[in-house]
Amino acid sequence: MTTQLLHHNEQDIQTAGRLLAAGGLVAIPTETVYGLAADATNGEAVARIFAAKGRPMDNPLIVHIADFGDIRRFSLVREIPETAYALANAFWPGPLTMIMKKGDAIPDAVSAGLDTVAVRLPAHPVARAVIRAAQTPLAAPSANLSGSPSPTSAQHVMGDLDGKIDAVLDGGDCAVGLESTVITLVTEVPRVLRPGGVTVEQLRSVLGEVDVDDAVLHRLAEGQVAASPGMKYKHYAPKANVILLSCTDSEFIGYVNSHAGSGVAALCCDEDIPMLRGVMTISLGARGDYDTQAHRLFDCLRRIDGYGSVQTVYSRLPATDGVGLAVCNRLIRAAGFEVIYLEQT
Ligand code: AMP
Ligand code: MG
Hints:
Blueprint: E1 4-7, H1 10-21, E2 26-28, E3 35-39, H2 43-53, E4 62-64, H3 70-73, H4 82-91, E5 96-101, H5 108-111, E6 116-120, H6 125-134, E7 138-139, H7 154-161, E8 167-170, E9 181-184, E10 191-194, H8 200-207, E11 211-212, E12 241-246, H9 249-258, E13 264-268, E14 280-283, H10 290-306, E15 312-316, H11 324-334, E16 339-341
Parallel strand pairs: 1-8, 2-8, 4-6, 5-9, 10-11, 12-15, 12-16, 13-14, 13-15
Antiparallel strand pairs: 2-3, 3-7, 4-7, 5-6, 9-10
Helix pairs in contact: 1-6, 10-11
The structure holds adenosine monophosphate and magnesium ion (MG).
Adenosine monophosphate is lined by residues 59-60, 62, 99, 111, 114, 116-118, 141-142, 179, 182, 193-194, 228-231.
């Protein structure tokens, strides 16, 4: 299959819409990461997403809509809880996914057999224009091969999926750079299953009480069932071995310098670079600038693989306030939960 490269003009948006309405697969830009889209109401089209990505069939997909009214119009959910109206008012369009009881229009392939469905109204105007052109909601997981870092540019998508999908619509780099926050509204207290661009603090300011699922920062115990199936997989990982250090800034510099050598890299902050010796440095941005760190994280993880010779990458265990929680959640998975706790001095 030849993968067409489309651009964000009216004609190409209509082409993407036609391909999707006919059951094809098109990677589209959103403000979080690129999504690999298919008609969410067409079980066969959705099955192709799993095949192209090599995604485990038990990992459900997020359904993307162009307007709040699409939830009812396409019978996506059984009922819309009050909490969903409040969150939509505050954060939609934007990087927030809400899980509700699934409606009749959702094929089993989308929800991976669960009785719930995840819905998001993206902020990216091109994403919404493609949904409208397709005249159907779009199921769209991140447009990477399963297990690789999520794509934040059309080039990343091509690197993983060229020849496996109908088209990629190039809308430039993604603004947020990390996937959406996922919150379930079917539990008694709403619960964050995956942290993202909308922070836990922001959610609490609207809903009051909000829980954070254990799987956000911890490996599931043997046999424990994941509330969000995606959280149980090692994910976002470059081929090099990522090791996280829980430590102060000076301990980080000291530890990395004492482990310097060929094949060693530091995924670090701008301020560390002058103090690190004998290691390759890849900066996520300034210390404490979580938005930039989130924006650059996946690109940095992909660049590490591009350097080929890197075998070990040291990074800090990030702080967990604000968007830091999302950066920490992705890095901890990239590291396969391998964290070294240095003695705090
Ligand atoms: P991706 O679109 O690849 O970024 O992944 C979507 C994330 O949302 C995964 O972690 C899924 O497990 C999660 N998800 C999607 N639908 C549901 C659902 N109905 N219940 C729980 N988690 C879900
Ligand atoms: Mg993904």
